[in-house]
UniProtKB/TrEMBL annotation, chains A, B:
Domain of life, source organism: Bacteria
Assigned keywords, A-Z: DNA-binding, Transcription, Transcription regulation
Name this polypeptide is given: GntR family transcriptional regulator
Molecular function terms from GO: DNA binding; DNA-binding transcription factor activity
UniProt keyword Transcription regulation, yes or no: yes
Amino acid sequence: MPSGLTLPGGRGGEDGRPHYLALRDQIASAIAMGKLAAGARLPSERQLQTDTGTARGTIREALFQLEAEGLIYRRDRSGWYVSPPAITYDPTRWTGFMSYVIDQQRTPSTELLSIESVAAPMGVADVFRVVPGTPLHHLTRRRSIDGRAVLIERIVVDPALAPGLEQHDLGGSLTRILGTEYALKVVRNRVDMRPCALTTSIADMLNVKPGTPGLLVVRTSFDAEGRVIEYDHEYWRHDAIRVHVDLDIRS
Amino acid sequence: MPSGLTLPGGRGGEDGRPHYLALRDQIASAIAMGKLAAGARLPSERQLQTDTGTARGTIREALFQLEAEGLIYRRDRSGWYVSPPAITYDPTRWTGFMSYVIDQQRTPSTELLSIESVAAPMGVADVFRVVPGTPLHHLTRRRSIDGRAVLIERIVVDPALAPGLEQHDLGGSLTRILGTEYALKVVRNRVDMRPCALTTSIADMLNVKPGTPGLLVVRTSFDAEGRVIEYDHEYWRHDAIRVHVDLDIRS
DNA sequence: GAGTGGTCTAGACCACCTT
DNA sequence: AGGTGGTCTAGACCACTCA
């Protein structure tokens, strides 16, 4: 719905509302009303340009806004798509990614991108209480929901606790392997979360533009002796996750 | 540091790295090295434009990127500033905003923006287990750290549990008032968190641009009888908060 | 009133995805 | 090969903040 003529420069429609917000609202309500289903592709930017009679930059502003809200996402140089629903993550439950995604009627998958032995830098050495330089397992994995990559995780494991870890199938639940193969039982979990932007190396692996908003989840798991079992950085697409915690003092 | 000539259009410096990312890196490292202290103001966009010899749109792209990362923020039509450190929020601890901000050597403040009695819409009525239309207290408050507004909260309280609530000083800890004045003791907390964009009404109260990335925290507190004491939506600036949870199965 | 960011236009070339 | 988004330019007017 073109707004007709608008003065160059200036500030938008007859109502004083910026054009890009008006377009945002149109698309948002199209999504809300189901005219654009989850996973559906939006018209191209140039198409929207001619449809609405506004400049491409303005169109893109509306699109960025919707992306920040988590309503749409882009596939690099392919197009803009409606975001699927987010998955709910509960850091107080010990079940891993694979289980809780299945519990929510979605299809998880995990790819091992790399595993290497890395000399512990200072900060990480502190976490594991080893001397800096001690070799540690570093795994990088990509996890997807319904075929869409949603997070990159970088896990550090002490090979003293899990020798020969690389010989197992690491394309599934690591927690399970550590439990069944190495008898490592997690009794304490420390979790940190904060909004972040996905920097180039992560963004490339997720096939998103660098700077896309994300959520960083840092997880440290301990066993009964207070040893660190897993030290894990998860970089999530911000529109793919929702955190839920339910705590009862009495229990 | 101007990169010299660049072809119009195209894709940036001799290294193939986009200009806006190069500028981002410059500013980011200036912040990291302390050349720009927390709270400091950046040069104006037009100043950066002449300094770097790039178009204003490109400058702004770098700025948006840094904003998404939480490194800088803007004050509407005033300028861009270096973000202060984020506050750590632990949903498993029962202490309120005022206490945990003070614990982190910062200065909190709270303003009551409005309090009104609102007929419960369906969703909210469900939460409180009352019939839709029952009048409930709605408070809107703005909370700041070191004088910078960081969150808007909308709290719903059942007046049946807290009659005459509006006669108390609501510019401080609500949890304390409910505890000491109404003997309401929270034994269970349910917390949901998700990245969001701050929509117009919230953005105006925080004095940020609509669409600024944020974090929504929804908190539901119950007493021993399972009654809902507080139902609270907190809209945070995304660069102001960091969530931390530490859970021990054994305790 | 000078300066700031906010919105907008109308072009351009490029790298990459898709077919 | 054609279309898509990604990057970039060089202007403009506006609403607002600040001194």
